[in-house]
Write a structure and sequence with these properties.
By secondary structure, the chain is of the alpha/beta class. The chain has one domain: 2-enoyl-CoA Hydratase, Chain A, domain 1. Helices cover about 45% and strands about 15% of the residues. The strands form 2 sheets. Strands 1-2-3-4-6-9 form a 6-stranded mixed β-sheet, with helices on both faces. A 3-stranded mixed β-sheet has the order 5-7-8. Helix 2 links the parallel strand 3 and strand 4. Helix 2 packs antiparallel against helix 9. The protein is globular and about 55 Å long. It starts with a strand and ends with a helix. The model has no long low-confidence stretch (mean pLDDT about 95). It binds zinc ion. Zinc ion (ZN) binds next to helix 9. The site of zinc ion (ZN) has 4 residues, from helix 9.
Length: about 270
Amino acid sequence: MAHVDYATKERVATITLTRADKANAQNEQMLDELHECFLRAEADDEVRVIVLRAEGKHFSAGHDMSGGGDGKTDRFGPDGKYHLDKLYRWEAKKYLGYSWYWRNIPKPTIGAIQGKAIAGALNLIFPLDILVAAEDVQFSDPVVLMAIGGVEYHGHTWEMGARRAKDMLFTGRVFDAEEAFQIGLVREVVPRDELWERTDALANQIATRDSFGLAQAKRAVNQTLDVQGYYTALQAVFDIHHTGHGNAITQTGYPILSDLSQMKSELAKK
Ligand code: ZN
């Protein structure tokens, strides 16, 4: 695999994003590899807990906006232009579809998050069960800058509450470690150089529990959210997201409005 690493130790599977030179920006190949790793961890009866982490300074800068990634994309029509039907189908599978699948794997998933976690990064983070954050973590979803109302997996309202979700989306501001902890988004905040070690300790502790018990506990919480409309809301908001893409394609031929300079300057900020 080019952008993701997979390893198991005792009862814990660890999936690591390794595209640190691109701030772990997600291209199609990375997402496919990531999904392959989750499937592998799910299928391995020895694995009780799954850890997702990322090499480098930042967890993920979001989607790789430089293109489809590795020439695999089929988001374009025969004329080589963006077509909303193709884009919708592609994102339904690779973004919302993958994220929803990971959210429902019947094993605890723990994220170790550091640095920037921007926009598409939340598609990886919201589906996870428990988050451990480094002191320098910065969650944000500034895609309103591109005239889109948030990333594809709308966990925001569920994970942060309605007013904070609106704040995050309207302002594009960063939620730092302290605030993320206060609102219950992350379980604990640890020094950057202890992030992986502390996450492993938690994973190992949880992995001592009965696997069926863990699966049932996860299902109990997820099912409670689902009967409140979690799944239905995710699907509805995905369609809202695509009216944003449709609007942008109509106006510019590109699925987002505005240039990427504002996003890049966001990432460049310390
Ligand atoms: Zn999208």
